[in-house]
Amino acid sequence: MASRKSLRTTLSDVARAAGVSVMTVSNVVRGKFVLPQNKARVEEAITRLNYRPNLSARSLRTSEARSMGIVIADSDPAFLIDPFISRLVSGLSNYLSSIDYTLDIQGVVPERFATAGILRKDRNDALCAILCGPVELRRQHLEFLRKLGQPVVLFQEVFKSPSPDVALIRQDDFGGGKLIGQLLLKHKVRRVVFLRPMLDWSAVEQREKGIRSICAAALPGIKVTTIPAASESFEDVYSTVQKFLSRGVPDAIVAATDSMGVAALKACESMGVEVPKRLIVTGFNGFDLWRYTRPTLTTVMSPAYEMGRRAGNMLIQRLRDGRFAQRNVAFPVTLSLADSTGRH
Amino acid sequence: MASRKSLRTTLSDVARAAGVSVMTVSNVVRGKFVLPQNKARVEEAITRLNYRPNLSARSLRTSEARSMGIVIADSDPAFLIDPFISRLVSGLSNYLSSIDYTLDIQGVVPERFATAGILRKDRNDALCAILCGPVELRRQHLEFLRKLGQPVVLFQEVFKSPSPDVALIRQDDFGGGKLIGQLLLKHKVRRVVFLRPMLDWSAVEQREKGIRSICAAALPGIKVTTIPAASESFEDVYSTVQKFLSRGVPDAIVAATDSMGVAALKACESMGVEVPKRLIVTGFNGFDLWRYTRPTLTTVMSPAYEMGRRAGNMLIQRLRDGRFAQRNVAFPVTLSLADSTGRH
DNA sequence: TTGAAAGCGTTACCAC
DNA sequence: GTGGTAACGCTTTCAA
Questions:
Q1: Could you give the residue ranges of the DSSP H alpha helices within A107-257?
Q2: Is A18 helix (H, G, I), strand (E, B) or coil?
Q3: Does the CB of A60 sit below 7 A from strand D?
Q4: How far is CA B268 from the centre of its chain?
Q5: Are A221 and A283 within 8 A, CB to CB?
Q6: What is the pLDDT of residues B29-72, one digit of tens each?
Q7: Residues B185/B214, Cβ–Cβ less than 8 Å
Q8: Which protein residue lies nearest to nucleotide C13, measured between its Cα and the C1' atom?
Q9: How far apart (Å, rounded) are the C-alpha atoms in residues B82 and B76?
Q10: In CATH terms, is domain A5-53 a member of 1.10.10.10?
Q11: Average pLDDT over chain B, rounded to whole?
């Protein structure tokens, strides 16, 4: 029956089957007004023929894809397991779904950022990005994004927006670091270890700066030592902390992330160092993990899901209005006290 | 200079700038052989004009999108935080990226599955899906997927493939349940609680069947009681277990997932019920969580990341060869012993 | 309200 | 090896 070479049903297949023109079918599909009698026949034909609109053709014609992309630079192949990222992407995806937009996703190791297919081809109306690596590399990548000439939201960086097409959304990691710092003050610690991954990440830098800004101003002085673990993996962090503890026990271990905080807790346990009695431990960017440990982990809560929604919303407004209403947005974070810093 | 109304650079913009035909530019872009002198001029123009190929136009012409979609039915809006799903999607995404394919992602509550935009429009060459909800609903959704007339990989279901276009990939949850069951035998338990979420999920059903198959055959008999928590959330599971324990302590709590296992551990802790001394606890579908708790959690390890890669690979082969080589694939799982079931 | 035709950016095809 | 042309499926435009 179908004499077309294409295997897929098209508008004109439906039009022929329903005895109307393609425009009538198109109008039905897009919810425009069509006489009820025609509409019914078209809908019947659509169902019978299993018609689905070809978005490539629609996008080509309308020059809007109703789709956004997100590119995530991460050294871990399983880039979505990071709880911040999984929440951010969930929020973005759900927001976009709610307005009938699609989300394209791609993870990429930082060294190969600029080769990501999602950036080299034009398939999405706008892009989101999360960078990592040394600050100069991140700056290059931002420049690469700027040159795309497409609306972009960049997460978690403190760069100034370099173009009207680039907006930045971050949580207040510096402020979060200060909250941890103030907690350290309250506990009258003297020697603090800031435990971070080797790989640079803007948020980690900000957290460290926030903590140090408080500790530097403290009287009596608080000495902050930064210890880098080879990676964020449990094994690397665990062994790094064990090695450090074997040479002396500080008053506090401030971990750059919750998963590192957990590994630190476990390392303390293995060395017989009691938390919070002998030293206190904190995490960062907490979601549920804090409550799984014993003792439970004091951390700073992130609004990641909401940040994802917001990014989608800002990009939609940018596409509609031709400009971003704001190009720098910072979300507040909150301190979440638990047993690893002792009962207040 | 650019007299076109479209804002984006096109092939013919580049062709004009380089003084060649569009076909030459197209050939350069696609890596076909072009005389070095022309190639150089074209590449210069591409860089200068910031040209990126329009994938909608390419897809329309070639009728291949080089893109796949995944739709995830989940009652939790943050559908990506589930560690199984985040690994599965990471594996799929990375595999697709490596062959220059894109991944579209959409989460949807099970009641609205068939309304998901990713299913109602034709943008991807193939689809992956994860279902949840009562088995009849899942069967309907599978039928919906079958009718799309597109290659589909469905995860974690034990349905028979209903069409040459549908392949099923799952882990051996029944076998995993048997591993847990055998462990229970070894510990000579008599009263077992299977702790599961209210929401149906194929994998949970299989796990329960596997456990019960072993327990039913045991001598002396092992009594298995199923306790549903309102949801998988920490609070719901925690309070469900507390309530249950207040009426008596079984010999084992077998949780349907690791996060439920952790909540059970914490509920035991809160009630002063020692694990593994007084009762043993197990999780399921473990990744890193098991090592965060005290005691660490015995669980069954899932090959989720590898399953995602495999799905991508099977779909690519299906697109290339016109048929699936296999339509039912089961990945083995492994038991991971830890402190919550005591030292052997 | 409906229909006919043009054209979105690209690639397949076929001349040269 | 390169270029002209048609066509992919859809929506915009304009006429009826």
A1: 117-120, 135-147, 173-186, 202-216, 234-245
A2: helix
A3: yes
A4: 30
A5: no
A6: 999 999 999 999 999 999 999 999 999 999 999 999 999 999 99
A7: yes
A8: B23
A9: 9
A10: no
A11: 95
Residues of chain B (52-91) having a beta carbon less than 7 angstroms from strand C: 53-54, 57-58, 60-62
Residue B220: per-residue pLDDT: 86
Q: Is the pLDDT of residue A72 over 70?
A: yes
Q: Left (φ > 0), alpha (ψ -120 to 50) or beta: where does A156 sit?
A: left
Tell me which fold the domain A67-172+304-331 belongs to.
Answer: Rossmann fold (3.40.50)
In this prediction, residue A7 has a pLDDT band, given cuts at 50, 70 and 90, of confident
Cα B172 to chain centroid, rounded: 14
CATH code of the region A173-302+336-341: 3.40.50.2300
Does residue A205 have a pLDDT over 60?
yes
B56 vs A53: CB contact, 8 Å cut-off?
Answer: no
Answer whether A335's CB lies under 8 Å from A179's CB. yes
Q: What is the mean pLDDT of chain A?
A: 94
Nearest to B54 among A8, A81, A122 (CB): A122
Where are chain A's structural domains? 5-53, 67-172+304-331, 173-302+336-341
Residue A61, CB, strand C, below 7 Å: yes
Tokens of A62: 């309308």
Single-letter residue type at A97: S
